[in-house]
Design brief:
CATH topology of the largest domain in chain B: 2-enoyl-CoA Hydratase, Chain A, domain 1
Oligomer: heterodimer
Number of domains of chain A: 2
CATH superfamily of the largest domain in chain A: 2-enoyl-CoA Hydratase, Chain A, domain 1
Largest interface: A-B, 69 and 57 residues
CATH class of the largest domain in chain A: Alpha Beta
Order of helices and strands of chain B: HHHHEEEHHEHHEHEEHHHEHHE
Number of helices of chain A: 11
Distance between the termini of chain B: 55 Å
Bound molecules: zinc ion
Shape of chain B: globular
Distance between the termini of chain A: 40 Å
Radius of gyration of chain B: 21 Å
Largest sheet of chain B: 8 strands, mixed
Shape of chain A: globular
Number of strands of chain A: 11
Structural class of chain B: alpha/beta
Chain lengths: 283, 319
């Protein structure tokens, strides 16, 4: 579920992408993985990947759209959908307060953006999850926007790419969020039947209800290096079995080794790799 | 009846008094039959009173009652014993937490699949507490394909605290197994009737729960997470499970109100654990009715309606 999101907030490493973009040239990027320091400029030029250790920084739709769409140009779909609070969910905080906070902090409306455009001259629909918004958790808006992106791909016969980056279902929408797994998977069944290509890109992290629905259902599943991918979170598994987890458990390479990922793609090669796959499907 | 939940204590007291009288009657031959009878009606009164207003958390407790009937008991009862269990996913192993097989219900051959929990400590472990591994979901899909091939309806019985969080389960693709079931169940050409008979927790429940009709037994629960785990994550302690149960709106009544299920199957007063035979009858009646009505619907229309039903789930707003 969304445990990863809470950990992240409490560690205070949230860096809104909007702010980062405004960082003047010459500032430094501190790699959280290898602790090396590089210029922000070099970091961006290297697709937000550490030039020393290849750590793939968690980025959002703004960066992915810029990396993948030709000239960074795209048309957004259903930009105006926002979450409601049908269950009037209250835990320590009100869900509505969490939503307001998330949108103020990130400038985003919910945890996915959907758009269509061109990738190396080929049409593509991309749905990209936003981890910065409530841990990329899937509630009704994520389910609906992904469903509509699938509808758009179906109607216009355009291949679909979904970039997953999510802790799983959004607990504050309870069973509504659970049913988004069924909703999106059922829609993908229609896309499958219509023989329209669907590429799933799994990035760090892709867990819970997202990995157990659309993220695992690509005609081709690709992943960024060293992404955490799994159904249950590592902490829960550790508590259940009472043992330490094996090295590299639930990382992209582990999933590829066990047969669930077709290939692991460095972010610098993402655009060429995806357009190559689309070529295989169409030529 | 041996096990009583905390809030069933008034029933337990009357029950113990009654047992005492029965024992005395047998020992000394004194006739207590009218007292025993009057205690029986008091017990029923008390049951009615207590079960009229169960809180969400109390329902969760009822759904986990150790004497609550589990999937195999329903399968045997619905088919009057004309049931053959089928085993294995044909890839890896036979998961003990998901069971299934053909049964004859009211003259009609039906594929029944469900999560299975054990009735005692040993069997609970054997069934892995109803927590399935990927091979359980793959066995379920294998059996569903078998049903589709011979044009038989499918009934699934949901009762799980969640899919098993283990190393092997992750290695063998827990996520992929559940996801694949969701996509494939959406397109199956035969009717799928799902009944949450106990616990319906998360993707582990939904993995055999996408269908044309979904029912919940009156005291079953269904949500994205158990109240305990919800409390642990959102409140960072186990102490808010009652409040989490309320917040999650996980009862049959709330799920129906939110249009996330299609109907509620009433339980006998006192719960399915008190009168299992009555519970079996009610489930059987609902299942037979649906199987009958789906005979008149083409598979294309049925699949279309199934996908549209899930497509309509969720509440959001437009800015
Ligand atoms: Zn680094």
């Amino acid at each position: 579920m969304c445990a990863a999101w809470f950990k992240r907030i409490s560690r205070g490493i949230q860096t809104p992408t909007a702010k980062k973009k405004e960082t003047p040239e010459g500032l430094w990027y501190n790699c959280p993985s290898c602790k090396e320091v590089i210029t922000v400029e070099d970091h961006i030029t290297n697709s937000w990947v550490c030039t020393h250790c290849d750590y793939h920084h968690r980025i959002g739709s703004k960066e992915y759209f810029q990396l993948l769409f030709d000239e960074g140009k795209f048309k957004e779909l259903n930009a105006k959908l926002v979450s409601a609070d049908p269950l009037k969910f209250v835990d320590k905080k009100k869900y509505t307060d969490r939503l307001t906070e998330a949108s103020e902090k990130t400038g985003l409306k919910d945890a996915v953006k959907t758009a269509h455009g061109l990738i190396n001259g080929r049409r593509i629909v991309i749905a990209c999850m936003e981890f910065a918004f409530v841990g990329g958790s899937m509630g009704a808006v994520v389910g609906e926007k992904i469903s509509r992106a699938i509808d758009y791909a179906l109607k216009n016969k355009i291949p679909l790419l979904i970039i997953s980056k999510s802790g799983g279902a959004r607990m504050m929408e309870a069973a509504y969020s659970l049913m988004q797994m069924a909703k999106t998977s059922a829609k993908l069944a229609l896309l499958d039947k219509a023989k329209i290509p669907y590429i799933s890109l799994l990035t760090d992290p892709t867990t819970g209800g997202v990995s157990a629905s659309f993220a695992m259902l690509g005609d081709v599943n690709i992943a960024e290096p060293n992404a955490l991918i799994g159904f249950a979170g590592p902490r829960i598994i550790k508590e259940t079995i009472g043992k330490d987890l094996p090295e590299g458990f639930q990382r992209s390479e582990f999933l590829k080794e066990h047969g669930f990922i077709d290939s692991i793609v460095h972010r610098n090669a993402l655009k060429s790799e995806i357009s190559q796959l689309l070529k295989f499907f169409s030529e | 009846m041996n096990t009583f939940l905390e809030f069933e204590q008034p029933i337990e007291e009357l029950y113990l008094q009654q047992q005492e009288l029965i024992r005395k009657q047998e020992e000394n031959g004194t006739d207590f039959s009218s007292e025993i009878k009057s205690l029986e009606s008091k017990i029923n009164e008390q049951r009615k009173e207590i079960y009229k207003n169960l809180s969400a958390w109390q329902k969760v407790q009822v759904s986990r009652h150790p004497e609550r009937p589990h999937a195999l008991s329903y399968m045997e009862a619905l088919s009057g014993g004309e049931f053959t269990e089928l085993h294995g996913d044909r890839y890896f192993s036979d998961d003990k937490a998901i069971v299934g097989g053909f049964g004859i219900i009211d003259g009609q051959s039906v594929m029944m699949i469900g999560h299975q929990k054990g009735a005692n400590t040993k069997m609970r472990q054997y069934r892995n507490f109803g927590m399935a591994r990927p091979e359980g979901y793959r066995k379920a899909m294998r059996l569903m394909r078998l049903a589709e091939k011979f044009n038989k309806p499918i009934v699934t019985l949901i009762d799980t605290p969640g899919a098993y969080p283990g190393v092997g389960a992750e290695e063998r693709g827990q996520s992929q197994a559940i996801a694949k079931n969701l996509m494939d169940m959406a397109m199956l050409k035969v009717p799928i009737i799902c009944v949450v008979i106990g616990e319906g927790a998360s993707g582990g429940a939904l993995g055999i729960g996408l269908g044309d009709k979904t029912y919940m037994l009156e005291h079953a629960w269904y949500s994205v997470i158990s109240p305990e785990n919800c409390s642990a994550i959102l409140w960072r302690t186990w102490d808010f499970k009652e409040q989490a149960a309320e917040s999650l709106k996980l009862t049959a009544k709330d799920m129906l109100k939110n249009k996330l299920i299609d109907g509620i199957i009433k339980e006998p007063i006192g719960g399915a654990h008190a009168f299992p035979l009555k519970a079996f009858e009610k489930v059987k009646k609902a299942v037979i009715q649906d199987i009958e009505s789906f005979k008149k619907v083409s598979s294309e229309k049925m699949i279309d309606a199934r996908i549209k039903k899930y497509g309509a789930m969720g509440v959001y707003q437009t800015m």
